[in-house]
């Protein structure tokens, strides 16, 4: 058979894999074209700079994938690979606050030993609320390490607002599906918390497949009084970081795939509705960290006109995305079967790496970016680097009055940069007027300054 014949047969097989019904995986929502707003140009407030260059590497080699970061006084709390929450002292000390899962057998066993992502301080007790994509959402006492599972991966009580009603087929609404990738968390004053479930079709280590499917992420509200979670927004394209506004009138959720931030109104005439808070961001949104004047948003994968997002490029082509997902499933299937049959660590290693987003890090743009956004939806500051010292940023958190800590899902250290006098001055200025929030699809309005807030 000649080359032409082989190409024809290969093409036919791929087309059949892409379009034949009934082949795995079975997704929550069907493959359809997805519309993603064009990325904003790197001009004006978003213009490239070197404000994140030369980041210090704190505890280098001792922190594996410090994704979530919190600061209280002289203490810093980080979530790291292996189901651990660590407390970092200002004298270089490291204390394990809690270990959520069993010990790891390697850097490929996160589905067994845990990998906590979002963390926040509890408002009802000296606890941390910790979201782990494999082990659920936990309440962890900061001093004793005592743990309590609040949202399990199975048997979680999920309410989509139609409890007691079923569809025509007698089944529950798909919105009540069990959580699959608990990710971000933000605690309210009354002790309730808002959390994100990134996607429902694949587990966290299969993130590539998850973002190729149609959006199945959710923003949810957890009631501490009832132990129930209520779905606020469904079909979020990679639901990620969560943050509450200071007056708790709305809650925001970052959307990794859509490169935007969604808002759910909790109070006022729009209560119970949701909209796009800001879109067209120059990268995939990860964790959000707020204060009185605004919030910081880490962009974990940079995107711009020269470096388009592979998710955005594939979004309009459902058949191509379905083909890629099915190919990943077919390649991974024998290793997953072998692991389930024998418990082989080699098979576990293979199933971990096939579809793991970390395997694409070398292909990510070198730019690292953190955005400062006010509560009106205006980008006030954009901090970039071009030396890879702090790219792939999951979270940005002020430390003291002059530094910014930078979490990362791939690094083996915690980044820290000193904020310049100009940056500090911009953060402390009082706004002269209240700017209007950009609507969905709008491009950036001129930047405004923030309410006075000492970092």
TrEMBL record:
Residues 173-183 have a biased composition (Polar residues). Residues 160-183, 431-455 are annotated as: Disordered. InterPro entries: 6-blade_b-propeller_TolB-like, Strictosidine_synth_cons-reg. Residues 183-268 form the Strictosidine synthase conserved region domain. Pfam families: SSL_N (PF20067), Str_synth (PF03088). Residues 440-455 have a biased composition (Basic and acidic residues). Keywords: Glycoprotein, Phosphoprotein, Signal. It comes from Anopheles atroparvus (European mosquito). Belongs to the strictosidine synthase family. The keyword Translocase does not apply. This is Strictosidine synthase conserved region domain-containing protein. Residues 1-30 form the signal peptide.
């Amino acid at each position: 058979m000649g080359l032409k014949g082989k190409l024809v047969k290969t093409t036919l097989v791929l087309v059949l894999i892409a379009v034949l019904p009934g082949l795995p995986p079975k997704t929550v929502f069907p493959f359809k074209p997805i519309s993603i707003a064009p990325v904003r140009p790197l001009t004006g407030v978003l213009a490239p700079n070197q404000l994140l260059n030369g980041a210090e590497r704190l505890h280098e080699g001792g922190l594996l994938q410090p994704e979530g970061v919190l600061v209280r006084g002289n203490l810093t709390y980080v979530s790291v690979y292996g189901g651990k929450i660590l407390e970092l002292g200002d004298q270089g000390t490291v204390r394990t606050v809690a270990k959520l899962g069993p010990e790891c057998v390697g850097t490929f066993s996160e589905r067994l030993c845990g990998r906590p992502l979002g963390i926040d301080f509890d408002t009802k007790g000296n606890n941390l609320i910790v979201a782990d994509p494999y082990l659920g959402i936990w309440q962890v006492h900061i001093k004793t390490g005592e743990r309590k599972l609040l949202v399990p991966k199975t048997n979680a009580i999920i309410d989509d607002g139609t409890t007691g009603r079923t569809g025509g087929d007698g089944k529950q609404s798909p919105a009540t599906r069990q959580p699959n990738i608990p990710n971000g968390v933000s605690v309210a004053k009354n002790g309730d918390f808002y959390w994100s479930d990134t996607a429902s079709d694949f587990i966290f280590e299969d993130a590539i497949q998850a973002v190729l499917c149609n959006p199945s992420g959710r923003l949810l509200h957890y009631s501490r009084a009832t132990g129930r979670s209520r779905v606020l927004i469904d079909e979020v394209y990679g639901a990620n970081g969560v943050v509450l506004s200071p007056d708790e009138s709305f809650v925001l959720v970052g959307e990794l795939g859509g490169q935007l931030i969604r808002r759910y109104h909790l109070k006022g005439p729009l209560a119970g509705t949701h909209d796009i808070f800001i879109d067209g961001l120059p990268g995939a949104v990860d964790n959000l960290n707020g204060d009185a004047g605004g919030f910081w948003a880490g962009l974990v994968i940079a995107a711009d006109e020269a470096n388009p997002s592979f998710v955005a490029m594939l979004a309009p082509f459902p058949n191509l995305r379905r083909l890629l997902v099915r190919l990943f499933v077919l390649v991974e299937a024998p290793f997953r079967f072998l692991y389930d049959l024998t418990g082989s660590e080699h098979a576990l290693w293979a199933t971990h790496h096939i579809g793991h987003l970390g395997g694409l890090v070398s292909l990510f743009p070198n730019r690292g970016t953190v955005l400062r956004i006010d509560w009106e939806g205006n980008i006030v500051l954009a901090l970039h680097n071009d030396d890879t010292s702090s790219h792939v940023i999951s979270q940005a958190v002020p430390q003291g009055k002059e530094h910014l800590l930078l979490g990362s899902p791939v690094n083996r250290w915690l980044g820290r940069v000193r904020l310049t006098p100009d940056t500090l001055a911009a953060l402390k200025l009082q706004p002269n007027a209240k700017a209007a929030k950009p609507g969905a699809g709008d491009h950036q309005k001129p930047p405004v300054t923030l309410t006075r807030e000492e970092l």
